Amino acid sequence: MNAIVMDISRLIEREHYSTPTGIDRYALHYANWLNERRKRGADTRLPQSLWFIETGYRGAIPVGTNRADRLISTVNRRWATTELSPSQAALLEHIFAAIDGKSAWHAAKEETPASRASLERLRRNARLIAGSLFDRPAVPGNTSLIHVSHSRLDWTSAFSWLQEPGRKGIFYVHDLIPLSHPEYVRPHEPRRHRHRMETVLNHAALVLCNSQLTARDLYTFAQEENLRLPSIAVLPPGVEESFVNAPQDLPRPLTPYFVVVGTIEPRKNHMLLLHLWQYLAERDGSRAPRLVIVGKRGWENSQILAMLERCRALPGLVIEVPGLGDAALARLLGGAAALLSPSFVEGYGMPVTEALALHIPVIASNIPSHREAAGNGAILLDPLDGRSWRAAIDAVVASPRRLSPPSAIHRWETHFSDLEALIENDVATRRYAAQRMPQRAFAMPNNVMS
Fold it and tell me: Number of folded domains in the chain?
């Protein structure tokens, strides 16, 4: 079995953000997992400075153990706590007051000022340039790289060290949306994502995917591009602890409200909900339920922002919250009438599984990833059928309910138990399989770590 190193470029880039994205969560969980392996002496072949790397312009740059420990510890405190910070508690109380009409709501500024993000980019570039100018410890042979974030995979030549004998890559692919649905991304993203997927397929011994949909899309891409197909395993993410045992320690609003979670971008289909709430405002006035939009402003969204900022019917009914940590989001979702997820396309459906873990009704678009994530636990509707969405929302308001607890919640412990089985076992014949077994979905690869 090879020694394991992990690329933590994503955590280094995102350290200064106060709330994580879905991919940030993966990066942190995998870093914690590998750090625990290091601390319990799971592999004594690696120098202590070579458990974690950052991808530089010319290849892998080792991240020292002390620096990695500080980074992981800092990000854990910021992202992984189940306790409400004073600032998040105050924000949540403000949201609840706004839902009940007790205070006016003005969307908070984005949590990370542009100047701070620009400074971080300058520091990153200086660090990478320095790393490319000086000799650095080489990653030992017979080493497997784990890369779970998509970050810097478009720097194709930076991964050429994986071509050396005995070295193997394990990559996590979250979606191929820039290639399958380029209309929903920035103009340069399809080209960059093609390079990312080429890097994965050129260097992977094993590819992990969050869903059968993503696995099928990757399989199709490899066939169309005539690229080598490695072993592919479906390994869904776990539900965060905040959503499994979320305390309801704050008074809930009396007014019913719905929550939509995700970056404000076209593929999330916020326009459907904003037009629907415009109709509800005209029909019901101040008696209309509230809509809480949790997510930062993304890209290609000028029409959505025009509705949010200039539609006279929406103030007081639609509340835009750019940054909520998991602890606050779980408490917000826990009091909602339902989660709404009208996306046109997703790689998975993390908010859907989180809401179901909280026993909250889910109204979601009838797309493959939602069907896979929710099973029979959600109301699934055409993302363009506004009347059906209106009827479903009216029905939930008229008859509030909580769902029965799901039969099983996929936890991160299960995820890493499956991962350990994947990297510890050999199978005589390598094969593609994207079959999802209940709660423990994986296909054994051939000689992934041997």
Answer: 2
